[in-house]
Amino acid sequence: MSRIERFDCSSRYSEASVHNATVYLAGQVAADGSQDIGGQTRQVLSAIDQLLHRAGSDKSRILMAQIFLTDLADFAGMNAVWDAWVVPGQAPCRATVKAALAKPEWKIEVVVTAALQNS
Fold first, then answer.
1. CATH superfamily of the domain spanning 4-115
2. Domain map of the chain by residue range?
């Protein structure tokens, strides 16, 4: 049986799970919801960097990103930050959709799946 490792577990969810050389992250949102889309996107991508590092991966190993925006008018602002963050030549598969998020101050939520470094 394959081992599953979980990070930052609560009674409701884990921030990350690792199974079979793949890391799955929970949706990441901004800690400071008062910032604009650029600031919130930077916060989210930083949280992703940190979780991937703890799990044994990094942004160059992201296989799929799912991006949820509350307002599609923020698409260009989010992309400006994303484009500066993503590793050139290693852009993952990606989907971006408009969605209502759990808190009204959140403008963006990102879910990623990545391969581990040693896979």
1. RutC-like (3.30.1330.40)
2. 4-115
Q: What is the DSSP string of 55-102?
A: HT--GGGEEEEEEEES-GGGHHHHHHHHHHHSPTT-PPEEEEEE---S
pTM: 0.95
Tokens 């992703």 correspond to: 48
pLDDT digits (tens, 9 = 90+) for 37-75: 999 999 999 999 999 999 999 999 999 999 999 999 999
Instruction: Answer for the pair 103, 41: CB distance below 8 angstroms, yes or no.
Output: no
Sign of CA dihedral 64, 71, 88, 59: negative
